[in-house]
Amino acid sequence: MTQRTVVVVGGTGLAGRAVVEEALRRGHRVRSVSRHVPPAPRQVVGAEYVAADAVAADAPERLGAAFDGADVVVDTVNGETPATAKVLTAGAASIALAARDAGVGLAVVLSIVNVDRGAAIGYYRTKVAQERVYQASAVPTTLVRAAQFHDFFDRFFGSPTLVGALTRLGTVPYLRGARLQPIDVTDVARALLDVSAALDAPLDGEARDEGEPGRRTVTVAGPEEVDGADLARRWAAAHRSRRVPVGLPVPGYGAFFSSGDATAPDARYGRVTYDEWLARTAGA
Ligand SMILES: NC(=O)c1ccc[n+]([C@@H]2O[C@H](COP(=O)([O-])OP(=O)(O)OC[C@H]3O[C@@H](n4cnc5c(N)ncnc54)[C@H](OP(=O)(O)O)[C@@H]3O)[C@@H](O)[C@H]2O)c1
Questions:
Q1: Any idea where the domains of the chain sit in the sequence?
Q2: Which of 22, 91, 111, 130 could connect to 54 by a Cys-Cys bridge, CB 3.0–4.6 Å?
Q3: Topology at the third CATH level for domain 5-147+184-220
Q4: Per-residue pLDDT reduced to its tens digit, 169-223
Q5: Residue nearest to atom 13 of ligand 1 (CA)
């Protein structure tokens, strides 16, 4: 293994933290960049933390300093509201520009499985725009399109805010007809680090690999295909919840998730199953 300097923009987030941990485990020097630097007890030991806002006026200088000496920049930022989404577009442009100016050899960008088939979903359109910013940039780029994370479904099954009224009514709401292939964030982190090794680095597992080095798109999903009802039942059992799974139509999302576009049967890269993830997290 060659030691490299890996900068993770969004390194304090769900996926980003897993990338920081995996990069350190592989022996790399690691720098995490985000708007907020977490207090010491919440930092990953061995990583360097740098504060920079990718959409602020001082982004070019801040990101430039953070990328100094970097071999790879991994972009795991997120912004899901109209007010924060510009980190995926204007932010991507600033990150790509700063990476080029710093002589970074590769940008690795975390995206979503088959995202270009989800035009009915506003967030997915923004993610496609993010991908295009990188692909049109001067920085060699590998996009890693991952299936939904195991954690993602907690938003529906357990969230007191997003679907609070429904959970109070005694249901575990799930997307009716959804076909899924969820992946663990630790497996997503492995994939991001596998491809970070070189423009044409192989993945340690089954993945869909398209495009050419420097403009490459890799797709990774979890080890099993499941439907939304099954996932909700497993969630309820693991949480010893007496709430009853109920399938609901979700306008805009239904077609993508019921068509199989959220799955990638040719990319069973993930090793951790949903049940293993539940065993680790339910009641934790
Ligand atoms: N959830 C899923 O199932 C799933 C599946 C496939 C792909 N993805 C993709 O995975 C990516 C990461 O998702 P996540 O759930 O890990 O995100 P997350 O937990 O919300 O983390 C987002 C990270 O971005 C940082 N950030 C936000 N705005 C920033 C800004 N203006 N400048 C610098 N840093 C900023 C945040 O730190 P600060 O707030 O401190 O800045 C944080 O470190 C997303 O792009 C998403 O599309 C998600």
A1: 5-147+184-220, 151-180+223-281
A2: 91
A3: Rossmann fold (3.40.50)
A4: 688 889 999 999 999 999 999 999 999 999 999 999 999 999 999 999 999 999 9
A5: 78
